[in-house]
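Deliverable D2.4 — example input (structure tokens):
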């Protein structure tokens, strides 16, 4: 036997190896695509548009251990689309018809009311019920028509609100309104049983609430108008408290820190002719006690500058500077306890007592007033 020639086969092998070498990148890419989820079907990577096309044969439903059928996501979406907007409206909960709220007939300002302290849920529920009766709770004294308090208290809200002559009610007015039957859509017409009566506090403070409200109605928030009033920032009760009280009574209260070049001068105005009626009750009442202001005194009070201050060491440092500054501006200085403005606002009557004024050399704590709470 003769051995066949291998020249041709060797050439074929060389060509095959060369061809495989050329195909190596394609083979590597193919192996990589095989490992990717989805493989190389459909000619390579599927586009996002292809993924949105529903499969011609949806996956079968599966049965859970409880025997209920679980629908595929595509089935669920198809059924929802098939139902249409009408079915969606049918499944939606029907909104309960809201009862129209009555117009606001009473604006309450609350002070020292303890029933809602630490009870935000109760507060919200009772405020909603009050609103159904035409009652809204406000926080600004200038907006209130009625003031609710457990007693006569020397708080900023109570004293500021008196300048607006509101109806002052006891705290039990609120639970009474909350407990009214649902068919009631208005607060009680007769408020006489709920009017605040606190004879003990009236005797202690020397104020009659009804008289103070009558004066407030006559004063029309002009009790402190035109009087230069200043206040030390560290006064007991805080500068903002006295500023709110003074402004509620028509005045302006400015801070005094002892820097004379930075002191603003309060706007002063002369008393209007015939306007002393706003303080007329004070003239008669004060004359009987020997502590009130006569006609000349009421006019001369516009020539005073008042500094509301305590008697702490820091506050005493500015007393001399205030007196010096007032005299430079042709004003008679009065360095006074905060009780002066608190008593005036509580009684709606300007009165002057010697005990109001601090004197140099006074011992700390002597004759010290309570201040605003």
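Example output (designed residues):
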């Amino acid at each position: 036997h003769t051995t066949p020639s291998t020249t041709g086969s060797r050439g074929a092998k060389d060509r095959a190896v060369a061809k495989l070498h050329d195909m190596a990148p394609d083979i590597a890419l193919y192996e990589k695509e095989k490992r990717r989820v989805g493989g190389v079907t459909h000619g390579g990577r599927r586009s996002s548009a292809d993924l949105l096309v529903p499969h011609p044969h949806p996956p079968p439903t599966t049965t859970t251990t409880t025997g209920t059928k679980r629908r595929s996501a595509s089935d669920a979406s198809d059924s929802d689309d098939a139902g249409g907007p009408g079915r969606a409206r049918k499944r939606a909960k029907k909104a309960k018809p809201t009862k129209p709220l009555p117009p606001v007939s009473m604006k309450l300002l609350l002070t020292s009311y303890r029933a809602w302290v630490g009870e935000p849920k109760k507060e919200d529920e009772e405020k909603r019920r009050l609103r159904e009766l035409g009652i809204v709770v406000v926080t600004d004294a200038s907006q209130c028509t009625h003031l609710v308090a457990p007693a006569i208290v020397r708080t900023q809200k109570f004293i500021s609100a008196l300048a607006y002559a509101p109806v002052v009610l006891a705290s039990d007015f609120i639970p009474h309104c909350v407990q009214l039957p649902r068919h009631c859509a208005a607060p009680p017409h007769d408020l006489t049983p709920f009017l605040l009566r606190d004879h003990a506090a009236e005797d202690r403070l020397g104020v009659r609430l009804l008289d103070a409200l009558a004066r407030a109605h006559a004063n029309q928030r002009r009790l402190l108008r035109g009087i230069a009033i200043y206040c030390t920032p560290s006064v007991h009760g805080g500068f903002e408290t006295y500023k709110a009280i003074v402004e509620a009574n028509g005045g302006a209260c400015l801070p005094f820190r002892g820097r004379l070049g930075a002191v603003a001068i309060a706007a002063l105005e002369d008393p209007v002719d015939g306007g002393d009626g706003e303080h007329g009750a004070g003239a008669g009442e004060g004359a009987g006690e020997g502590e009130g202001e006569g006609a000349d005194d009421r006019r001369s009070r516009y020539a005073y500058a008042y500094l509301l201050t305590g008697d702490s060491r820091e506050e005493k440092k500015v007393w001399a500077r205030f007196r010096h500054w007032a005299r430079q501006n042709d004003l008679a200085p009065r360095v006074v306890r905060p009780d002066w403005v608190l008593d005036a606002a509580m009684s709606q009557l300007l009165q002057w007592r010697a005990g109001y004024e601090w004197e140099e050399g006074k011992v700390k704590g002597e004759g010290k007033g309570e201040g605003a709470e």
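The chain is about 40% helix and 10% strand.
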